Q: What sequence folds into this?
């Protein structure tokens, strides 16, 4: 009986470790928690850009990976680029901002 309990406990431990490793992040993929965090950051950055009256938010795309925000799309001037980057950097949780926006 004790042998069966040990085997079941071992299997449960292996299953727990496998599950934890399946949700862990690597340098090229996010863990579940990081994905949720990045989704929240992306939403906050999009909202902040939308609430900035000088920016046309529909033309600015926001992507986040491990706290690093990437802005892309087209804007009317270099001032708009600078403003969008500043707005994104001000959002809590943003580690860095990569600017891939282009001036029309």
A:
């Amino acid at each position: 009986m004790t042998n069966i309990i040990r085997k079941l406990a071992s299997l449960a431990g292996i299953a727990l470790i496998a599950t934890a490793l399946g949700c862990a992040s690597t340098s090229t993929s996010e863990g579940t928690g990081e994905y949720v965090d990045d989704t929240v950051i992306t939403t906050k950055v999009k909202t902040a850009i939308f609430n900035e009256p000088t920016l046309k938010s529909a033309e600015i795309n926001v992507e986040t990976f491990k706290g690093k925000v990437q802005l892309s799309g087209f804007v009317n001037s270099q001032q708009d680029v600078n403003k969008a980057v500043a707005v994104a950097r001000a959002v809590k949780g943003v580690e860095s901002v990569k600017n891939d926006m282009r001036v029309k």
In short: The beta strands are 60-65, 68-75, 96-103. The chain is about 50% helix and 20% strand. Helices lie at 2-22, 32-50, 78-89.
